[in-house]
Amino acid sequence: MIKENTFIKILVINLLIIVISICSYAQQNTDYISKGAKVYIESNDNNVMVHSKDKILLWGYWKPVESKTEADFILTLDANFSVFYTIYAQAITKDNKIIKKFKSKNSFNGLDVNPKRGAVRALFDTEIIPFIHGMN
């Protein structure tokens, strides 16, 4: 009876150690979007992609890349126009797992004569950059 209890305790402890070690090696969502990460920008609007790349280069936190294969993550930007240009954004892994969905922002928030650039500026200045810097 004592040997069985000891065996069970040792087994449980070993299983806990294995589970904890596996979890510690798992990549966290925020690891994908850390400083120096390579980002591929995907959008239904070419100008939004251009303005986003410019903003990312100016910010200097991530490195925009030209292909998904070399990227650490993908920033998808869905731009729509009704009264203002509105951008819905999310960061996803290359296998389409959501890292972070950002609140949509529109060109009215960006205060720019170029509505697409204004929407991109609003998205980065009020959503993406504060979120990223808040992680550290």
Task: Describe the protein.
This protein has one domain (29-135): Double Stranded RNA Binding Domain (2-Layer Sandwich), CATH 3.30.160. It has helices at 2-25, 29-32, 46-59, 107-110, 115-135; strands at 38-43, 63-65, 73-81, 85-92, 98-106. The protein is α/β, with parallel strands linked by helices and 136 residues long. It is 49% helix and 26% strand. The chain has a five-stranded mixed beta sheet. The model has no long low-confidence stretch (mean pLDDT 86). β3 and β4 (85-92) form a beta hairpin. The protein is built from five helices and five strands.
Distance between the termini: 51 Å
Largest sheet: 5 strands, mixed
- Any idea what the CATH architecture is? 2-Layer Sandwich
Q: What is the spatial order of strands in the main beta sheet?
A: 2-1-3-4-5
Helix content: 40-55%
| Domain module tally | 1
Q: In percent terms, what proportion of residues is strand?
A: 25-35%
Radius of gyration over alpha carbons? 21 Å
Low-confidence stretches are none
What structural class do you assign from the helix and strand content? Answer: alpha/beta
Q: Let me know the CATH homologous superfamily.
A: Lipoprotein like domain
Mean pLDDT comes to 86
DSSP helical segment count: 5
What features would you highlight for this structure?
single chain; 136 residues; alpha/beta; Double Stranded RNA Binding Domain; 5-stranded mixed beta sheet; 5 helices; 5 strands; 49% helix
